[in-house]
Amino acid sequence: MTDQIKKTIGVVVVLLLGVGVWILYSSMQPTVSRLQDTDPLAGEALELVKKHLSREGYTLEQELQLFVDQLKADGIPHREEEWQVAAQKDKYVVRKIVREKGTVEWIEREFAWRVDVKEKSIRVISLAAQQFMPFENLPPLPHQEEISSLPIKIHQMVRQFG
To answer: Residue 63's closest CA among 72, 50, 76, 75?
Structure first.
């Protein structure tokens, strides 16, 4: 064999090894399904959440961006994921995750909503997302009737014993 043939075989072997490593590496990487790109109703659910008005009068998308901008302004290291949409029976779950560096470990905030595209309704399903939702869109508190009647009961007891 001549030197030219040996060099050619060497280059081909190195290229094949490089392609093999790349294929192996890319197959091991997790892929985030972008349902909103393939399902028109999922895309509509995402837009309903993004355009929904927040407690402060901004859209939810603007509120989340303001939250991330505040992290940047405060110099807090953070990671922001893309919007994600998942099908759940006849509804969709729309979420966005923001991770911020705490004093000891990373803090993950999941902003999530359940969307009924047919009825055009949005329900908050995560604690982090509750801070942006208008009060009329929040779920009722557990034992709300008992809590709201507590001041009346205390007033009655004070009058009875006072």
So the answer is: 50
Cβ atoms of 115 and 97 within 8 Å: the answer is: no
What is the spatial distance between Cα 64 and Cα 49, in angstroms, rounded to a whole number? 11
Q: pLDDT per position in the chain (162 positions), as tens?
A: 788 888 888 888 888 888 877 776 666 544 445 777 778 888 999 999 999 998 899 999 999 999 999 999 999 999 999 999 998 888 999 999 999 998 889 999 999 999 999 999 999 999 899 888 887 766 665 655 555 555 555 656 666 665
Specify whether the CB–CB gap between 115 and 49 falls below 8 A. yes
The b/e string for 10-27 (b: 16+ C-beta within 10 A; e otherwise) is eeeeeeeeeeeeeeeeee
Helices marked H in the chain — which ranges? 3-28, 35-38, 40-51, 60-73, 127-130, 144-161
Q: How many C-beta neighbours within 10 Å does residue 35 have?
A: 18
Q: Which domains does the chain have, with CATH numbers?
A: 33-139 (3.30.565)
